[in-house]
Amino acid sequence: MAVETSQTNDAVKQTDTAGTKFTPTNLTASPPLIQRPNETWTTVLSSPCPFPPEIFHTIMQNLIKNPNITSSHLFRADIYYDSGATQPPSFDAGEQNDDKSFTRHLQPQYRPHSSGLNGVDGYEVTRTLVRELIPRNPLLDPPLLQTCHYLQKSDKHREWNTVLYVPHIDSGESMPFYHPAVAKVAFTHTWPLPSTPPKGKGEEEDSEPAGSISISYSLFKEDTQVSTKLERTALRLLQTLHKHGKGQLAGYEKRVHLDQVIPQKRYQDRYTKLKARFGRQLSEQWVEVTDPGKHVFEDLGIAAFLIELWGDMFDISEQGKDGEVGGATASGSKTEGKSPFPGFVDIGCGNGLLVHILLASGYKGWGFDARRRKTWSTLPATTQAALHQRLLVPEIFLPETSKDQENKPPLEPPQNEKEEEESQQQEKSWHTGLFTPGTFIISNHADELTAWTPLLAYLNQAPFLAIPCCSHDLSGARFRAPPTTKRARTQQKQHQNQSQQHQHQQNQNQNHSQNQDQNQAPPHLPQQHPPPPTTKTPSNPSPSPSPTTTKAPHGTHGPHVPQSPETGSLLRTTQQKSQPSAYATLCSYISSLTSELGYEAQREVLRIPSTRNVGVIGRERGCLGASGVGGGEGNREGIREGFREEEREERKRVILELVEREMGRSVEEVGGKWIERVQMLGRKPGCGH
After folding, report:
1. Which stretches are tagged as biased composition: Pro residues (predicted)?
2. DSSP-based three-state secondary structure for 322
3. Buried/exposed code over 556-590 (b: 16+ C-beta within 10 A; e: otherwise)
């Protein structure tokens, strides 16, 4: 909702004076702001605020749709009904429940409950919503249906806007833990209206007082006073409202956008099922020294995302057991025109939990890592058979004498006792990175393998999910990843040069045209000649540069770079402050590698307990549907059948050229460094991940 300019400017002026700080005042002993004959209302807290009603409405709309902001026990809110701000309120506010009501199509439990304030004391309902609060742990707390009303009233001097929460519950004993045990909760915002009579010429302009926000409770009949717990809850709610309002007033813009690939509801519902099935068991049998809470629930979150992603990309109706995979299909994914699930491989699988969760959920696949983990021995035998200790050495790094078929490890996990025995003998051998074409590649905090993930996917004509963590180049060495590949930087530079040349040519043509116009202009009469321009000769023929600019270093070219003033230590310029972090550039670099190899790179900020939570999804352009979420013309079965050895050799050549271009060295030199590092890595003890 747009903010009115006049009121916003007035509010900005007040941010440095009145109402800037959060200063709550206890009003439990004062008369309540809301009074009803048959209801016990208490105004708990109030605080000055600098933001206008438009910002209050924006903040409250965000809190209604995202209740997890004020309660960590909640996942989200599902909106079942919204009258809209322009709908006639009389039939939308729960005042009528007959056949003429606009909500007659809803089931009775989803129909709005009356505010009890419409038309009382000048209040008018302007909007009504019905939401369901979804808890994180449904085994502890049930969901809660709730009606949210927007009410408004005004007089000559002030405007009151109230957002009222009405739980669909009749007693405090039935109220879930995450909601205050009251019949209603009211958020009230007051704001001064502009003075109509203008001030006289000699009169001083009095500063308008700031607005205010307050929290009020309507208690259940069995309650007589507000408890200490309810006061603490009101303080948290009011503080959150004040903080978010000040942020919006200061121009806050959301930088991280979640749920761009998989809708929030689908992901969280899937995560809740996986958590109920695996969470407690995996946490109790944790044998690593690291925190089980982080690793277990992180892998559960990644598994939930993958299951929903695969439901969009593949036909998984024939997969799985215990109804788990079928449930993914039923969550909103159609199967027409999709190929069967091709299986997965988790490169750098670490503790193996992600592989175990996916296998137990009915998805075939396997994983390998340079080092065994103690966790592997605690997992079921079927999972242990799918976990292998391997050192990945891409085939382009291997000498020709090592590329014969006898020395290669199998592309798939062993299928019989003989293959299992051979696999055990090769347990600490290498893997070439060549899988069954089309196999979905997972790279979860795989460190040295992160940058190689798009390359391996291209070699195998496969989709992938990469979750970067630490930055390593294609030789396995630590480095600060650039935001783009060398080819992308070269193309960008060429484009900039062409743009500059085009602009320079336009300027020359414009100057030439102006000169021609001046030469063809009629002569001026003597009195029409303008006086010659006066020029001031500077006292110093070689002025020193401005203190805010510096000359380019000797031997370099380019525009002057602004430098911040020195105050004992150099302050960071605006340009320096906007520099992306090392993790942000690493994610951009992986996306650039993905795009250079012909993939449609998508990025999703995952809902996992980790600061390294960006997932880069790579799907070949032909495998994207109209919505960009998979399916469409890309047929995986066709890919697997038509992927000939000649095409794979051509892809190897492309990868070889890319490695040499990015590293600036021959592939033999890069491969030597890689093999040296992975051998050292294999000798280190395994960690918790």
Report:
1. 523-546
2. coil
3. eeeeeeeeeeeeeeeeeeeeeeeeeeebebbbbbb
* Per-residue tokens: 648: 């794979």
What lies within 8 Å, CB to CB, of 476 at 6+ separation is 448, 673, 674, 677, 678
Alpha carbon distance 629, 592 (integer Å): 19
Residue 637 is predicted with a pLDDT of 44
DSSP category for residue 414: -
Strand partners, 189: 161, 213
- Determine the average pLDDT of the residues in 139-154: 95
Confidence at 535, pLDDT banded by 50, 70, 90 = very low
For 298-337, letters b (16+ CB in 10 Å) and e give bbbbbbbbbbbbbbbbbbbbebbeeebbbbbbebebeeee
Sheet with 40-49, strands from edge to edge, namely 25-26, 40-49, 211-219, 184-192, 158-167, 144-154, 124-135, 74-82
Q: Do the Cβ atoms of 19 and 196 come closer than 8 Å? A: no
Place of tokens 């009169």: 203
From 443, 430, 429, select the one nearest 346 (Cα to Cα). 443
pLDDT of 176 above 60? yes
Whether 422 has a pLDDT exceeding 60, the answer reads no
CB atoms within 10 A of CB 426: 17
d(CA 251, CA 242): 15
List the one residue out of 427, 437, 433, 428 whose CA is nearest residue 449: 433
Q: Is 433 left (phi over 0), alpha (psi -120 to 50) or beta?
A: left
Per-domain boundaries in the chain: 5-195+209-249, 344-382+427-482+587-682
Highest mean pLDDT: which of 327-341, 412-426, 670-684? 670-684
Dihedrals phi, psi of 151, to nearest 5 degrees: -125, 155
Q: What DSSP string describes 252-297?
A: ------B-SSS-HHHHHHHHHHHIIIIIHHHHHT--SSS-HHHHHH
Q: Which two tokens stand for residue 27?
A: 């009003």
Stretch (H or E) spanning 303:
helix 292-313
Is residue 97 within 8 Å of residue 110, measured between CB atoms? Answer: no
**Which pLDDT does position 415 carry in this prediction?**
64
Instruction: Please name the amino acid found at residue 551.
Output: K
CA distance 189 to 33: 11
Q: Which residues contact 76 (CB under 8 A, 6 or more apart)?
A: 65, 66, 67, 68, 134, 264, 265, 268
Residue 629 identity: V
User: Is pLDDT at 411 greater than 90 in this prediction?
Assistant: no
- Give the H or E element holding residue 512: helix 486-520
Tell me if 50 sits within 8 A of 210, measured CB to CB. Answer: yes
CATH topology assigned to domain 344-382+427-482+587-682 = Rossmann fold (3.40.50)
Residue 5 has pLDDT above 70, yes or no: no
Statement: residue 344 has pLDDT above 90: yes
Nearest CA-CA partner of 306 in 261, 250, 339: 261
| CA dist., res. 124 & res. 93, Å (int) | 10
